Amino acid sequence: MHALLSINNLTKNYGTTEALCNFTLEVVEGQVLGILGPNGSGKTTLLSILMGLRYPTSGHFTWFNTPPNHVPTTRIGALIEVPTFYPYLSLYDNMRISALAKNISYNAIFPAIERVGLTPNLKAKVATFSLGMKQRMAIAQALLGNPKIIVLDEPTNGLDPEGIVEVRNLIKELNAGGTSIIVASHNLDEVQRTCTHVAILKKGHLQAFGGVNELLTSAKVAIVEVRNPENLIDFLNSNPTIEVIERVGNSFKLLVNKSEHQVTFITDFQNHGIAVNSFEIRNLNLEELFITLVRK
Ligand SMILES: Nc1ncnc2c1ncn2[C@@H]1O[C@H](COP(=O)(O)OP(=O)(O)OP(=O)(O)O)[C@@H](O)[C@H]1O
Description:
alpha/beta; four-stranded antiparallel β-sheet; 10 helices; elongated; binds adenosine-5'-triphosphate
C-alpha cells in the first residue's frame, strides 16, 4: 500500500488558540478517512493546511512522499469551501469555468461528470438542480484531472436525506473505482457507513485513529435497566474501567471492555445486590465511541 499522505507533528496556532497540536497520521491508497470532531476541534484548519490554504505553525506533511509545493494540483481534488457555481449557466459551462481556473483541459470534463452520474444533465441549468445534484457537481469539479485522492469538508452539510444518500453512494462508488477520500464531517452515522478509517479530534488533539471496524470492536456497549440505581452507581464507582455513556432514569448505557462477558457481568450485579430489570450487550457504534472520546 502506498502512502498518499503522511502528516508529522502538524501544529497550528492562531495567536493563543491552539487549533491543531502535534497531529500525526498516514493515509494509504484505498482508504476513505473520516475526520471527526466537535465544532472548533481543528478539522477545517487541518484540511486547509493540507490544501495549501494556510501555513502550519510547525510540523510537516507530504503528499505521495513529495513536499506539498512540488505536487501537481491535479493529483489532489478538493471541496473545502462552500461550492461556487453559476446557477444560470449549464452544468457543462460551470465545469468549463472550473477547468479553466485549474488549468485543466476541457477533455477532463466528461469523465468527471460521468463519475458523479450527471451526464444526462450536461446541458441543464444548475439552478434547476437539487441540493444533492449541486453537491455531486461540486464533487465533479474536485474530480477534474482524475486525482488519486479527494478532500471533502462536510459534503453532506445542508442536504436533505435524499441528497445525503446521493453523496454517500457517490463516495462509495468513487472509492470502489480507486479514488481515496478524506472527508471531514459532523455526521457520525454517515462516517460509519462510508469510511474505512476514522480520526477523531478534540481541541486540536488526535483522540483516536484507526480502521472503523477495528475501533468499533475494541469495546462493547451494555444497556442495563435496574430497580436500585444507587447500587449500580456504587458498583461503577469501584469499577472505573466501565464508563457510563448515557443515563436516562434507571436505564444506563455502559462502555465495557470487550473481554467482559455477559455472564460475569450478571454475577457481579447479583453480588452487589443490583436488581436488574433488563440487560443487553451489543457492539459499539461510532456515535458512542465519539461521545466517550470527546467528552473526557
Ligand atoms: N482564522 C482564524 N483566526 C483565529 N482563530 C481561528 C481561525 N480559524 C479557526 N480558528 C480557531 O481554531 C480552532 C479550530 O477551528 P476549525 O475551524 O479548524 O475547527 P472545525 O473543527 O473545523 O470547526 P467546525 O466543525 O465548527 O467547522 C477554533 O478554536 C477556532 O475558533
